[in-house]
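pipeline/complex-builder :: batch 7 item 3
reading input block
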Amino acid sequence: MARIGFIGLGVMGQPMAEHLVRAGHEVTVHNRSPDPVRALVEAGAKAGASAAEVAEGADIVITMVPDSPDVEAVVLGQQGVLEAAREGVLLIDMSTIRPDTARKVAAAAAARGVRFLDAPVSGGQVGAEEATLSIMVGGSPEDFEAARPVLESLGRTIVHVGPVGSGQTVKAANQLIVAGVIELVSEAIVLLEAHQVDMQPAIEVLAGGLAGNQILERKAAGMLARRFDPGFRIDLHHKDMQIIQAAARDAGVAIPVTALVAQMLVSLRSLGRGGLDHSAILTLIEDLSGRGGSRSPTAGQA
Amino acid sequence: MARIGFIGLGVMGQPMAEHLVRAGHEVTVHNRSPDPVRALVEAGAKAGASAAEVAEGADIVITMVPDSPDVEAVVLGQQGVLEAAREGVLLIDMSTIRPDTARKVAAAAAARGVRFLDAPVSGGQVGAEEATLSIMVGGSPEDFEAARPVLESLGRTIVHVGPVGSGQTVKAANQLIVAGVIELVSEAIVLLEAHQVDMQPAIEVLAGGLAGNQILERKAAGMLARRFDPGFRIDLHHKDMQIIQAAARDAGVAIPVTALVAQMLVSLRSLGRGGLDHSAILTLIEDLSGRGGSRSPTAGQA
């Protein structure tokens, strides 16, 4: 069992840290707000007053925070992980951030003798609670093997996808496909409804062929019913679209459809729907087609 | 067993007509070029000199021709189906055409006492050969039930999706999603390759999550290997994009991403790649990203 420092106890981080405690690790946690820290202490963790305090004496430090600047703050900033981490410590960032930020943090860590993996996850809150996350890991093969036993307490599919930054790039590709497919399924649904097609058998036959995808499987029923309670909020997917677009720009890769879908997420936030599930892209296609009237006027505040 | 007239013996129609012969139906066939007619006659069918001749004495007439004008020609034109079909005959158009053309043909048929179903298919040449097609049927429930035993010799998933035109609308939605997802997977692949990600595990983890789709399952390996032998040709998907856009325009539905993907298919044809599999959308994303150099200069003629 390892001594693990865990920083960031949000909707994802809290259940993940609990799984590590339950697996028998000696876990010290830190979070900006105190409530989830209390919950973890009750579960058997220790509390650290800062990222640095959590990193002291740890073999492994895991960060699970909202965005690129947050990772920089808790790792590189004052009272951050690198102020206190021993040489040889393995730092695993499981946040979804820009690949170039991952590489920058890895370089700063290496300069202090700290090893680094980027290991973003997919599977959402349910995946975190049930320890069924998919974990996409970038870094050296040796560090990946060292992290694997710990990651196996958190997820079901754990893959090494290349050097530092690769995990974030694969997560970016994941979010690119998810947003785009939601948009395509939205176009299909609005088109089919406008033509008075029977939606149930239509979705079934679409899901069974080459058009088949997980959005049709898991999201179409909610979209047909106009249920947009999150799930994964448009605000968060909007953040991820900025990461994707930065990663593509850095590599000189043109992503014209994703750029267009990113603009739709900008519109949805401006329309007050940032708190809805990302499947609410459907509502924008409805609005653009003059078919938004059926939507409940309170949907924007759901 | 029924007396069936079958018009259009292309790569799809020929194996479909053969399945109907094998199922014990009395099949009369017609095709513009004579070679496939000979093959069907050897298999036990009769040959008709025109669409009208095929329709004479038939209980059911099936059309499987390339495009909307072809359906109008063989049904409404001189020596066409409606010149000869008895009252009460069931006409099943299995071509992929515009929903409004299906409704127009259905109205002309009704004026002659001929019943009409639009029943486009998905599953491609392999699905036609193995009788595993998905068949999306628009028309009255009674006509659908009358057609079902015959359609069951041709496909595995046979669904009634609404009134006349609905089958074509669902097929349009299918092609909309397929083209769009190929484009998204192309963006993802070019982005991941540009970042030197290990592609095998990356595709695997993407396919296993919310981004999972049949293009990743069935097409990504060929795309990674730059193998673009069809399959389903860009030329044909380009035709389908015009059907989709007409169906959306008719209903006042905005489909911004599909409109952009349709433009990409226009470009691919202008670049001489219309004969490649539709997964060659990847080559356009590569070109747009200055990464087309690795492509074989003969790919355009494959």
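note: Chain A has two domains: 3-163, 169-288.
queue -> next item
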